[in-house]
Amino acid sequence: MTKEAEKIIAATFQVSRLLRRKIAQAENGVKSINMLQLYALSYIKERYKATMKEFADHMQVSPPSATSFIDRLVKMGLVKRLPSRTNRKIVQLKLTPLGNSTLTKTLQQEKHIFRPIVEALSRNDQQHMLRILQSILQQKHS
Fold first, then answer.
1. Which of 19, 84, 114, 130 could form a disulfide with 90 if both were Cys (CB 3.0 to 4.6 A apart)?
2. Residue 94 Cα distances to 12, 20, 44, 67, 70, angstroms
3. Does domain 32-140 have CATH number 1.10.10.10?
């Protein structure tokens, strides 16, 4: 690995921590969802009626760990379990209206927090950053 690659990786983690700190400050003691819960809600919304197995595979955790994690989201009123109509062994996941609104609100809040950071960059730097991020995302799909 090159020194530049190591610096990019370190800077990426530092930016992530910076954003988490800014989000925590913006919440100002108000209880909200954490980043892993946000990621899970996003996946469940994208994969309408994802199964527990799909969820566990996506999160790269064991089925019992996925069950515990989903139990917490169910208790929070963010997710509900649905029995499959075709196979009673299959459990599907769906966001509740509260889960959907919480996801939307949290994503809007994060966008609001991240916007000034990105807008502080020059237009040229923004274009380079966009090109780089899109390049990374394209590699994910190849």
1. 84
2. 32, 26, 6, 14, 11
3. yes
Q: Model confidence over 95-119: pLDDT tens digits?
A: 999 999 999 988 888 888 889 889 9
Q: How far apart are CA 38 and CA 57, in angstroms?
A: 17
The full set of domain ranges for the chain reads 1-31, 32-140
pTM score of the predicted model:
0.75
Six-digit token pair at 75?
């208790």
Cβ–Cβ < 8 Å for 55, 66: yes
Instruction: Return the percentage of the chain with pLDDT > 90, whole number.
Output: 54
